[in-house]
Amino acid sequence: MNNLVLFASGSGSNFITIYNNTLNKKIKDSKIVLLVSNNPNSNSVSFAKGIGIDTFIINKRKYPLNNEYDRVLKEKLLNVEPDLIVLAGYMKLIPKSITSLFKNRIINIHPGKLPKFGGKGFYGLNVHRAVVENKEKYTAVTIHYVNEKYDKGMIIHEEKIKVLENDSPESLSKRVLTYEHKVYSDVINKLLNERFN
Length: 197
What we know:
Order of helices and strands: EHEHEHEHEHEEH
Largest sheet: 7 strands, mixed
C-alpha cells in the first residue's frame, strides 16, 4: 500500500478528488495518511478531520523560527513514510530541507503553462487573468516535481487546454479545474505504480 501525504491550503477540491480516487481505485493501492495545511480554517482541514485523516497544521504563527518549522515538518513526514507528497492547492513554499530529503517524491499541480505563467504570485485566478489578458490560444494544467523555488521543478506532464474567445478568467478557471481533477489522479497513479512499486 502506497502512503500519500497531501498538502492543501484552501477549498480542497483536488484533495477531495484524490481521496475519492483512492477509494474507487483510480489511484491503485494507495491511501492518504496525512493532510498538511498552513490554514486550520480551510475546507481541506475540516474535510480531512470529518473522514478521519490525520491533519497537521504548520505555519509561521505556530513555528516562527525557520529551523523549528523545518524540523517539525521533517519529523512529521518521516514518521508517516510517504511514497509520494502531493501539493493540492498549497500556497506556501516547501523548505529546501524537505525538497532535498524527498527529491522526486513531491509533486505539484499548476493551473497554467510553465514557465511562462508560473512563479511567485502566479496562482489561482491570477494565472487565468494573465492568460486571458495575453490573448493566449491555449493554456495548460502542468504537473511538476517540487524544488525550493516556486514552479521551477522538472515538468512531469502538461495537459493542453484551448482558451475560448469568450473566456473570462472565471470561466477559464472552472474549465481548467475539471482537467486538474482528472489529470492529477492519473499522474499520481502512474507515478506510484510505475516508479515506486
